[in-house]
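Q:
Got a chain?
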Amino acid sequence: MKIAICGAGTVGQGVTQILHDNHALITARTGGTIEVTVVASRSVPTDQVFKGVAYTADIHSVCRRDDVDVVVELIGGTTDAKVLIEAALGAGKSVVTANKALIAEYGDALFALAAKHEVQLRYEAAVAGSIPIIKVIQESLAGNQIGWLAGIINGTANFILTEMAATGPTRTFDEVLQEAQTLGYAEADPTFDVEGIDAAHKLTILSAIAFDQPLRLDRVEIEGISSLDPVDFKFARELGFKIKHLGVARCQAGQLEMSVHPSFVPMTAILAQIDGVQNAVLVCGDAAGEILCAGAGAGAGPTGSAVVSDLIDLVEGAAPGGGLGARAAALKPLPVRPPAEVASSYYLRISVEDQPGVMSAVTSILARRTISLDKILQEDIAPNRSFIVLVTDPIQHGVIAEAINELQEMSSVIAPVQSIRVFR
């Protein structure tokens, strides 16, 4: 099988290196060969791994070459990459991509195009780097009804939250973000990572596969981590939690729930143990129970490994139609539960003037809405100022939002109420 590598950056180099270093192993295991016949990029690649490989600056020309069977799209973005993939599929060439934004936003149409031309569009590398989570859901758990999944699916966000937790209330979000940028874990413009957009792209793909749905990025609730305060990490630790940025999807009573948000995760939970730039996805099937997949979520080797796994499936003659694939056009969208009706426990941090009757007033507002409490803390922060910290039992989002609005109208409440969901 002859392939074109489009994009000679970190992942392109990783894919080419793996195919070079493990050529004999791959051939022995598959009975076939995978040969890089051309690399296409805007500038001449200088990495030694591309030595001896034909080069073209015309990325789209690979779709017209007779010596290319499969196009590997690693240029990123949703403009040129979309045109490239459409041209490749239209020319009867299968495509392997690591482009989660493109799949999340345009995947339905691209899968339909692949089916029309009887080729494949494969995308294992689009979610969670080295973790084979796409294959786990669509192959290993194919006989399971998936109830829910939850994942730490952005390494940048997880690194920032891990560092803020480790240093307690001494380092701000901005300080840790700057460190992440210095270490190369965060982009110069980190918006996609820290505001949850990258994770939403990945959750969209996972939800579609797990619940046999079209791709529905526009129905994912998205909340980032930039508003988190160091003091919340202190209270999380005291209450027995860690703060993680989760992508969570559920199917209950025929309705979908899809959201990306910060969460208080019990320290005893397996997802609480995933630190640094690592990724993890926890999937619950009716037969298999809870399955955790964890590993490196980005980088030349991890993402390159996932790309190569798709190439191996193609060289082994894997049939189209698994996961989304050829059946994408036949998928029927389930109703999405309105955000106000989604239930969760909540952590609330309320800054108040320390006056007689304040705690009673706060609990009365909650009690009128039948919001029961699991944990209560009160801590002085200055003369006549204190934090009231609460963890509620599960309650619908719309109800807790109404209560927060009323709490913020109290004259004794001196700052916006912080609320973070609790993952059970």
